[in-house]
Design goal:
alpha+beta, SMI1/KNR4-like, 4-stranded antiparallel β-sheet, Knr4/Smi1-like_dom, TPGS2, Tubulin polyglutamylase complex subunit 2
C-alpha cells in the first residue's frame, strides 16, 4: 500500500511539473510515445557544491526546481507512414550537467589558438534594430555561462551571470539563447518564465528561434503550424517580419472588382417600362388625332 501511495504522490508531482502537458500531447492527432523521465530530487549538498565550485548563487526558482527533480526531460513523437518520428523535446540539464559553456584552456592547446573570447567586441552588445534590448553576455571573464539545454544541436539555452568580477560571487542571472552563429538572444529574466515558455512551445524543434530576428526554418514553421497554431501565429508578428505572407488577406472589393453588374431582371423591367410608355404615348396621340377628325 505504501508503494502505491508513493507512486500516486509522484504522479501528482509529475503532473504539476509538466503542467498537464502530457495529457494534452496524448490527445493531439498523430502524437505518439509521450515520455517523461522520472528523476529523484537533487541533494542540497550537490547544489552547495555547484555554487562553491562556480562562484555563483543559483536563482531561487531554479534551486526549488532542482530540489523537486534533478533535471527534466519530456519527449514525444509523431506517426508518419507507420513510423514514429521523434519531434518534441523539453529538457533541463541536471545539476551535474549544468556545466560552464566556456571551458578552461587546456595545457595541450596551441598558444595562439582562437577562442570564443576573440569574438567579443563592444558593438555586439545589442542586436541590430533592438535599441532597448538588454546587453548581451560576453565570452570572457565578464560573464559566467552555464548550459541548460543543448537544443538538439540547433543552439544552446544558457543560464547567464553578467557583469562578473573574478573572485566575487555572482547572484543575478538571466536566460539567454545562443544560436549556431554564436549570436546571443534574450529569452527571459527568470527560470520560471523560461520553463513556462518551453512548455507552451511543446518543445518543438527550433522554437527558440521564434525570439530571433530571422525565426525558425521553414520545416520548423510547418511543424509549429500543425501542433501550435495559436502561439505560432502570434510569434510571426514578433519574430518574422515576412510572416504575414502566410496569412490569407482577401479583399472582396478588389477580388471581385468588375464582377458586380446590374441584374438582367432590372434591365428587362426598365425596357418593358420604356415600351409601355411609348405605347401609351402613341395611343394618346391616336386618340387626339381621332377626336380632331
Amino acid at each position: 500500500m505504501e508503494e502505491i501511495k508513493d507512486s500516486l504522490a509522484f504522479k501528482g508531482v509529475a503532473e504539476r511539473l509538466t503542467l498537464g502537458i502530457t495529457r494534452i500531447l496524448e490527445n493531439m492527432p498523430g502524437v505518439v510515445d509521450v515520455r517523461f523521465a522520472e528523476r529523484e530530487p537533487a541533494e542540497k549538498r550537490s547544489l552547495l557544491s555547484w555554487e562553491q565550485k562556480n562562484t555563483c548563487i543559483l536563482p531561487e526558482d531554479l534551486r526549488d526546481f532542482y530540489l523537486t527533480t534533478d533535471g527534466f526531460t519530456l519527449t514525444w513523437s509523431v506517426k508518419l507512414d507507420n513510423e514514429c518520428v521523434p519531434l518534441g523535446c523539453m529538457m533541463v540539464n541536471s545539476v551535474a550537467r549544468l556545466c560552464p559553456l566556456l571551458q578552461p584552456v587546456s595545457l595541450f592547446s596551441l598558444p595562439n589558438a582562437p577562442s570564443l573570447a576573440d569574438l567579443d567586441w563592444e558593438e555586439n552588445s545589442t542586436e541590430s534594430g533592438s535599441e532597448h534590448a538588454p546587453a548581451a553576455p560576453h565570452f570572457d571573464s565578464r560573464s559566467r555561462i552555464f548550459e541548460l539545454d543543448s537544443c538538439g544541436g540547433s543552439g544552446k539555452v544558457c543560464l547567464v551571470y553578467k557583469n562578473c568580477t573574478p573572485g566575487v560571487v555572482a547572484q543575478k542571472s538571466e536566460i539567454w539563447f545562443l544560436d549556431r552563429s554564436l549570436y546571443w538572444h534574450f529569452l527571459t529574466a527568470t527560470f520560471t518564465s523560461y520553463y513556462r515558455l518551453m512548455i507552451t512551445h511543446l518543445g518543438l524543434p527550433e522554437w527558440q528561434y521564434a525570439f530571433t530576428q530571422y525565426g525558425p526554418s521553414p520545416q520548423a514553421k510547418q511543424w509549429a503550424s500543425l501542433y501550435q497554431p495559436l502561439t505560432f501565429s502570434s510569434d510571426l508578428s514578433l519574430a518574422d517580419p515576412a510572416g504575414d505572407s502566410y496569412l490569407n488577406k482577401l479583399d472582396p472589393t478588389k477580388a471581385f472588382k468588375g464582377k458586380a453588374k446590374v441584374p438582367a431582371l432590372k434591365k428587362k423591367q426598365s425596357a418593358q417600362c420604356n415600351l409601355g410608355s411609348t405605347a401609351k404615348s402613341q395611343g394618346n396621340a391616336g386618340r387626339h388625332s381621332g377626336a380632331k377628325r
